[in-house]
Amino acid sequence: MDTANLLPPIPLGKTWIRASEGESGDAVYRRSDGAAFAKVSLGEGAAQLDEERRRTEWLAPFDLGSPAVLDWHASSDGACLVTRAVAGVPASDLSASDLLKAWPSIAGRVKALHEIPVAGCPFVRSLSVMFDRAADVVARNAVNPDFLDPEHQAIPPPVLLDRLRAQLPTRLAQEARDLVVCHGDACMPNFMVDPETLRCTGLVDLGRLGRADRYVDFSLLLANARETWANADQPLAARKSLFEAHRIATPDDERLAFYLHLDPLTWG
Ligand SMILES: Nc1ncnc2c1ncn2[C@@H]1O[C@H](COP(=O)(O)OP(=O)(O)OP(=O)(O)O)[C@@H](O)[C@H]1O
Ligand SMILES: [Mg+2]
Predict the structure, then answer these.
(1) pTM of the predicted protein model
(2) Which of 49, 185, 204 to mutate to test the pocket of ligand 1 (most atoms within 8 A of CB)?
(3) Domain end marker among 62, 84, 106
């Protein structure tokens, strides 16, 4: 089955253009008029895409610039989620100096997300759930080495998992004090930015949104932006700006590292 077979029909004169193949194996298409995106999942991936649909619908009314759901189809072959396009370009397309200018606005958007009353969020992305997922991925020998820190690639994943397990009591206690609505996959391609004003326009790819320690988002944001920075000062400025925006006087580096190292074990 080709993912294109699951795309919904569109008015004459418009077409679906393949935009990317997601790391999860989903196919993403952009409508030729630029007004909508379609994400297609085959087979069992459809259940995952349904989770993304529910989260996207839930977040849309909060006015954070996240997409509205325009259409949804699921069948035994797979599923297709159509969302309204968020204006702008992915933050990962910006030069280092433009990303630094856009950064306060991105940090502000994350803060606005984290300020949504967490008790009203029905989606769980807790450490215990994510740790269990990592344990399952590791047990199935399904860790993708490309996602690991280069210095972790030579270490057997069960050893990486055990190192994280040793920190669980501390991290679970911190999570209980710092639970917010997290994006859950806060990498640069998932933040859209107006290339003229360099202000964040919104956030996409909400399949992992849920209640979690706010450091989950800080950790992925800072780590992923490293791919863009062009000198040693920019990451320091970004880190300072992020934690100032979130009113954190002394950032916890070990906690950042914990979530950074857990993340690659949860995909697979
Ligand atoms: N509604 C939207 N508005 C604007 N751009 C979008 C939208 N949906 C997707 N995109 C663009 O397509 C890219 C890929 O989409 P998305 O992030 O949802 O999937 P993915 O990262 O490939 O999927 P996954 O990692 O879940 O498999 C985004 O980074 C963004 O540039
Ligand atoms: Mg994405």
Answers:
(1) 0.96
(2) 204
(3) 84
